[in-house]
Protein 1
Amino acid sequence: MIAVPASPFPYALPPGRTALVVIDMQRDFVEPGGFGESLGNDVARLQAIVPAVARLIALFRSQGWPVIHTREGHDPALSDCPRSKRERGSPSLRIGDPGPMGRVLVRGEPGHAIVPELAPLSDEIVIDKPGKGSFYATTLAGELARLGITHLVIAGVTTEVCVQTTMREANDRGFECLLVEDATESYFPEFKAATLAMIRAQGGIVGWTAPLAALETAVGGAAAA
Ligand code: C5J
């Protein structure tokens, strides 16, 4: 076990049974002209974590530990997109509409792709999900079972939406989850802060949080020992 300094207490990371899940680092959420910006959000906050997420991915790859990427989106016919999701609110672009990066949140379109700096390697698992949670209507649970994974390190966007939903789904399924504080972000800083606080409240009711440097130091120290 690798002991990672974390809140609310150290996180015991078992090498060989831990995977990294990088959530929805897609152009539609992170880059100007995408779905996130069409909802009125400033995407600069999300762009700022790309280097930290890249470091985290590099850490897992250096250890030979699994890296799993998720993408939120829908098939071109929108058959897996509930009407409620498409029609809610008054965004300048709705799911499926043509935008500067192709049809918004549609699989295969440029905006649906993961940002180039974090592109998955050909042997890494990519989970396409129609909802906020990464377990709902996906193959993620089966992939984790096949790999013998019991612990998840989680990063990506947005902290209080797809990241938190995924972490709660995972927690309910028995996974021990660590959210990397500076490798996740929200369009709303107060929502990020509240999410981190509620995850680790009540003795880690949903899981743990830790800064990237703490994880890097712990893993590096274990590798050198
Ligand atoms: C959102 C996500 N915010 N990846 N998706 O709709 O958090």
Note: Residues 189-204 form the longest helix (16 residues).
Protein 2
Amino acid sequence: MKKNQKNKFYITTPIFYINDIPHIGHAYATIAADTLARYYRGKLGEENVLFVTGTDENSQKTINAAESKGMDVQEYTDETAKKWQDTFSKLGITYSRFIRTTDDDHNNTVRDILTKVYENGDIYKGIYEGLYCVGHEAFMKSEDLIDGLCPDHNKAPETIKEENWFFRLSKYQDKLLKYIEDNPKFIRPESRRNEVLSFIKNKGLEDFSISRESQSWGIELPFDKTQVAYVWFDALLNYVTAAGYGTDEFKKWWPADLHLVGKDITKFHCIYWPAMLWSAGLELPEQIFAHGFFNIEGNKMSKSLGNSVSPLDLVEKYGNDALRYYLLREISFGNDGDFSMNRFKVLYESELANTLGNLVSRTAAMLKKYNNSEYIVNLDVKSLVGLEDFIVNLEFEKYLSEIFSRLTALNVAIEDNKPWELIKNDKKKAVEFLSSVALEIISIADDLKYFLPDTCESILKIFNDGRVDDTVGILFPRLDM
Ligand code: MSP
């Protein structure tokens, strides 16, 4: 079998910290992953797609958040993880598993892998003194601070001095450099790959601490009960836990086909993760794709600005598909972008309500009026070709743009053919024309359903088997209604 001819597809999103409720930045990778999972299910069969998302719970942030609410940590994690699960369910995310790093099977994975890595000689004891940023859940270098503050979190890191266990990352430097150079698609997009390559070449890889002495919450090290695993070492391993590590399932799913991550966490995924996997004797994922960040109305999304946008508020008002459409159409995946309510409404009105919604409703209405709701099903119509490359390459905006050009062309064809005039003296021609439009809409809905599942389900119901069903409501109600 050729490498790119897949027989299964395992896709992951980052797992989310639970000190926060989900904002649209978090929904972004999850919606993209959901779109891909739906596509691959259609190609490979339901049973051959594994799509995992979840929550990253064993961190200092969790402890701080629980304390600030005066809650027990376990109680806090249960309550917050549920909020994340509910949000993703309401967004129509079709994950196969929602993993929590407090799940028992994950605990077993982490302890098992730590034992393997330890026995392999890649873990040793040392003293760490450094600046720890809880926002990043990582140590920082003083040269990365601005006026003593972490530039991303605007907070001074804590100075921590601890006896910790270290992972021999440095040992894997040459192997990793060669691997990334030899496998141009391992890290995408190209810009991120180059960043990682130059990081390794210019800064070199230093061993990192994989345990915490002072933290009370987390996964105990199997070889030292006084310490818990460092949250990133633990969190990355969620990907193997969810693939059924330790069971027969694992052979089927591992290695993962695609890790979708944000550009802020590439170092962990593209440097720490491959080295950890090698040390544990496991294969590397096929690809890590880092998407960009988006601002809100031109400003960085931040707690202090209080400008974060809730995906639930948006979908309550505009529907799931409108949010999916905006995120995957407006911003080229991999690049940074902006979330603007004004642009959201413009795209909703012009592309979803007008180009798509109107095309469907006018075609259905004319068929009802001119031909008793019936249309001819055995006409040859063209379908869009070349779209698959776009989705496989995560060029979602190109995929959608092709589809919308075709929808626009269909609207133009209606204006040009004027079925409302044609019907007066050539009914056959009018019905044939409208039937061909209906058939093209069906074929487009079939391509669009990964992106707009609810809408396409309605479209396929409206044009079902030769008859227009006029009981389905308006696809995208006007915003002023
Ligand atoms: N828990 C870690 C990931 C562990 S994966 C083994 C983490 N969690 S997070 O909740 O802080 O972030 C999760 C994801 O949300 C990251 O991929 C991050 O890039 C993404 N985003 C957070 N804010 C974002 C935007 N403003 N825009 C786009 N994505 C953003 O990191």
Note: The chain has a mean pLDDT of 95.
